[in-house]
Amino acid sequence: MNRKKSFSILLILVLIIMSFIPSFVLAESGGASKVDKHTRGSSEPIPQLSPAQLGILLKCEELVSFKFTRTTITKAEIVPEGGLSNAGQPVGEHCLIQGKMNERVSPVDGQTYAIGFEMRLPADWAGRFLYQANGGLDGVVASATGSITGGQLENGIQMGFAVMSSDAGHNGAQNPLFGLDPQARLDYGYQAVGTLTPMAKSLIEAAYEREPDRAYFAGTSNGGRHTMVAASRYSDQYDGFLAVAPGFNLPKAAVAQLWGAQQWAKVATTNDNLETALPPAERKVLAQAILDRCDGLDRLVDGMVQDSERCQKFFDVERDVPTCDAVRDGTCLTEEQKLVVKDVFAGARTSSGEEIYSSFPFDPGVAQSGWASWKFQNSVGPRDPVAVGFVFSTPPVDRSMLQDTLGYALNFDVDTQAGLIYESNELYTESAMEFMTPPNPTNLDSMRNSGAKMIVAHGASDGVFSPDDTARWYEELDANYRNKAEEFARYFEIPGMGHSRGGPATDQFDGLGALIDWVEYGEAPDHITATARGVGNPGGVNTDVPSTWAPDRSRPLCPYPLVARYTKGDPEVSSSFQCKPSSGGNGLN
Predict the structure, then answer these.
(1) Closest to 362 (Cα-Cα) out of 259, 460, 494
(2) Among 253, 251, 252, CA closest to 392
């Protein structure tokens, strides 16, 4: 075959092959795309949802006979105005509903399980439904008032929401051993939400003679995890999602807590009190070193680190924290302490260096007692050890572990036992990482294309769920949507705030109001004003607020990756700041 004929055949083959290559593959710089078509976010136009319409409660006591599959209503009664209060204000008249669904006897442990719930239906209804996701290991039906974050000046019921809360399929007496029952695990992870939602909407329809116009889902901590899972699994049922301090990788974070306990034990003076590894005086030394290096990065020295990303680049524990020459006296850290601090903040890893969970940012909120309780107390018992052992590991550990959660935590082998959160078997058909986490957290096409919106907020000094993990999620989400994730999802980091609330922070903000404005009126939040809860705050005083601050100090919470930077004016007022990109520089004040 001559060269000309060979070349012609080759050219024809190339053209045939090229005809099967989608145009997007060559769309970027004339070369191959780094992202496969099937991982790209949707490019469909986003619809604008209409506002909810007001309604009037038409039934209450009669709802005790409400019929729905495997549902029993145990209480239906009117609560008069002032029967509840919030932030010193009376809650309006409403209907209180209590009940349970899917009552059953477990073939595994013989326990009787049910999904307990409570609903509060306001007499003057805003036409909206709110699923109030609760925290921890659940197991308690919290009062369905729509209180999501600390110090809410107006909770969900006051805003006119019909509100639901639940125990996620088990009661408090069954914590944590509900993890022995496979269905209880699944209900806790996500199935209770899927079971309750259609029932709740049907009950609302019975009470108001129409279904809600708009449905919202909100929670903090494990409730934030519930929220992100719902955005992935049940986006067809909800229009707005507010996730605060979301533990969306909760099994990994819990394992990291046990690993962290082992690190602190290296420098603790007694294993019975891990806080001796870094007691209050020494945490203040660490916090002050962070402030000395990073406080002025936003152009104002005010006891807050607004530009956290830049701070992480320039703060160095070894250089910036005073080193003890001899004994520990509360003014310095030893070399051994510094090493442990650096390791813990770098994130949990196996002995071979494989990442177990995310890093944590350095933030002056480490001085707060809430941060310490997660690092030194919950990590050894009972919260994290029992969650890992009974709920997240497959198979679960022997119940004798309850007698020595400290020993379990300090002897936990991350190299061999951490992988159990990814395991399943014939009895436990879904691993913890399957039933606890969003199935595909960076693909929210269904949510986006329905017109729904998501707001995520996370404290920079969360002691258990890392804001670094949340920021990484948002960066990956944004990349999947061609840098346009802000059209339907925004993340706000809260400087100084601990887990869900507290810390030297402006931790009082109206996330629900911002979400409603975005979902129903198209007003995307370019910032959310947050206020400190100093002395006299009607929503409750945050004792971590420094006395040098104005008790009502306000700051803008900025959509990631923007940060609040001082411009001019009163340094205690939010309007004196603007949300701008993190700046460069040498990190010096």
Answers:
(1) 460
(2) 251
Q: Are residues 282 and 406 in the same domain?
A: yes
Q: 553 and 415, same structural domain?
A: no
- How far apart, in Å, are the Cα atoms of 398 and each of 1, 183, 378, 429? 74, 19, 20, 19
DSSP string, 18-30: HHTS-GGGGTBTT
Provide the number of structural domains found in the chain: 4
Distance CA 409, CA 521 (A): 49
**Residues contacting residue 52 through CB under 8 Å, at least 6 positions apart:** 126, 127, 128, 212, 213, 214, 520
Q: What is the pLDDT of residues 445-472, one digit of tens each?
A: 999 999 999 999 999 999 999 999 999 9
- Of residues 71, 48, 238, 61, the one with CA closest to residue 161: 238
Asked whether residue 387 is domain-assigned, the answer is: yes
pLDDT tens digits for range 414-431: 999 999 999 999 999 999
Q: Quick check: is 460 in a domain? A: yes
261 with 410: CB under 8 angstroms? Answer: yes
**Structural domain harbouring 95:** 55-212
CA angle, residues 507, 510, 513, in degrees to nearest 5: 165
Cα of first residue to Cα of last residue in the chain, in angstroms, is 75
Distance CA 502, CA 508 (A): 9
Mean local confidence (pLDDT), 64-71 = 98
Catalytic residue positions, numbered:
221, 462, 499
Pairing of strands 128-133, 124-125: unpaired
Q: Is 267 found in the same domain as 123?
A: no
Label the pairing between strands 161-166 and 128-133: parallel
Tokens of residue 494, six digits: 């809260």
**DSSP secondary structure of 394-429:** SSPPPGGGGG-HHHHHHT--HHHHGGGGG---SSS-
